[in-house]
Amino acid sequence: MSVKDIVKRHEEWRHRCLNLIASENVMSDEVRTLLTSDLGHRYSLRHYIDDNFYRGTKYIEELLDYGEALACKLFHVKYSDLKPISGHIAGLSTLMFLTNYGDSILTLDIESGGYPGYTKDYLPNRLGLNVDYIKCNNGELDLDGIDINKYKVVIIAPSLVTFPPRIEKLSKICKESNIPFVYDASHILGLIAGNAIKVPDDIDIMLGSTHKSFPGPQGGIILMNRYEDISDFITLKTVDNPHYNRIAALILAMEEMSEFGRAYAEQIVKNSKTLARSLDDKGIEVLGRELDYTETHQILLKQFDNSKEFIYKLEEANIIIDNGLRLGTSEVTRRGMKENEMKHIAELIYKVYDNADISTVRKEIEGLASTFNAIHFTFTVRS
User: Fold this and answer.
1) Which residue in 240, 272, 268, 191 sits closest to 53, CA to CA?
2) Which residues contact 315 (CB under 8 A, 6 or more apart)?
3) Degrees, nearest 5: CA angle 378-382-383
4) Same domain, yes or no, for 124 and 55?
5) Is 224 helix (H, G, I), strand (E, B) or coil?
6) Is 297 found in the same domain as 185?
7) What DSSP designation does 286 have?
8) Are residues 232 and 297 both part of a single domain?
9) What is the dihedral of CA 252, 254, 260, 265, to 10 degrees?
10) Helix, strand, coil proportions of the chain in percent (round to 5)?
11) What is the pLDDT of residue 252?
């Protein structure tokens, strides 16, 4: 056994699977190629000693300048930073910059789909922050009783998100009180880039992961209209070498989204609605029926007896979901699947739910997966 053997078996298996993990996506072959470029060997450290501590960085500097400008154009902001190596590091960096020990923050309640990383036991615990929570129901934030002046930062981070929080009013309230408003858009960043989800034009800070609905390499990004000094602050605090091969790959993914993002995002939402409706029609209850199920890449199944067993049986049949009964359509959309394939996937999921023979279902799934190997919404396969 060798590492190459393990990776080979992983890739062979996953190519036979339908991946419905909402936190994952696939890059184009062109983007993946940049991850293996010479940039993966190199360093650059701006504004530490002189203009750069390292020599041999002239093309890295050009790459960063181009990428930051492209990010600003794609997401309609004034400033951007591509250095965070994950969405979590982007959030940590932002909280470190904006808060001090003993401050209080307001974040989205975990029962309303908020990201667990901002709850009191995780990042805030390490930074000495007090945490209060705001609730959200089908996109509507509950602002009743919120004393906004109590908080140093408001950070809204939807993780289980079928109906994105309508943040306009809260963002405006924060701005009027001069309190930083941060939107962690990790899950819906690709839908924002594709204009399927709107955010305020003057949002203070938006950050996130670049590999969920956004089809880039695993990494993070910070987008700003204010508080742009975050970029200098994080150097040698949360980021040293930001992995310039990753940044090059991210920039190409942004070029793809600039060209094809709108069509991609629209198809994701169509696919999510079709898959949700088809599952619900077959008797697998999907949350949000009264609002047509979803406006994102995510679908939430209602918990039921033996749901854990069902999840493991799906994996045995080569359908991959997470343990929260959350399904995502980003990757299957990226592979070129549309509404008819969503109906087929619903049939396959129902067969597992209805205790059909797993080996028979697996063969059908492998046949479907093998038909959709090309990555779409790229400069090679344009739709």
Assistant:
1) 240
2) none
3) 115
4) yes
5) strand
6) no
7) B
8) no
9) 140
10) 45, 15, 40
11) 98
The total number of structural domains in the chain stands at 2
Residue 197 sits at φ, ψ, to 5 deg, of -130, 135
CA angle (102, 106, 111) in 5-degree steps: 125
Q: Which residues are 107's β-sheet partners?
A: 133, 155
Beta bridge partners of 184: 207
The reported pLDDT for the residue numbered 247 is: 98
Instruction: Decide if 376 is inside a domain.
Output: no
In a domain, 4, yes or no: no
What is the structure's pLDDT at 382? 77
Nearest to 376 by CA among 292, 227, 260: 260
**47 three-class SS:** coil
pLDDT at 122: 97
Q: What are the angstrom distances between the C-alpha of 319 and each of 21, 222, 313, 345?
A: 9, 33, 9, 9
Q: 310 and 355 in contact (C-beta within 8 Å)?
A: no
Instruction: Tell me: do 248 and 284 sit in the same domain.
Output: no
Domain boundary among 240, 256, 272: 256
Averaged in consecutive runs of 10 residues, what is the pLDDT profile of the chain (383 residues)?
96 97 98 98 84 91 97 98 98 98 98 97 97 97 96 98 97 97 98 97 97 98 97 94 97 98 98 98 98 98 96 98 97 98 98 98 97 95 80
Looking at residue 327, its pLDDT comes to 98
> What are the residues whose beta carbons fall under 8 Å from the beta carbon of 63, sequence distance 6 or more?
39, 244, 247, 248, 251
CA 345 from centroid of its chain's CA atoms = 23
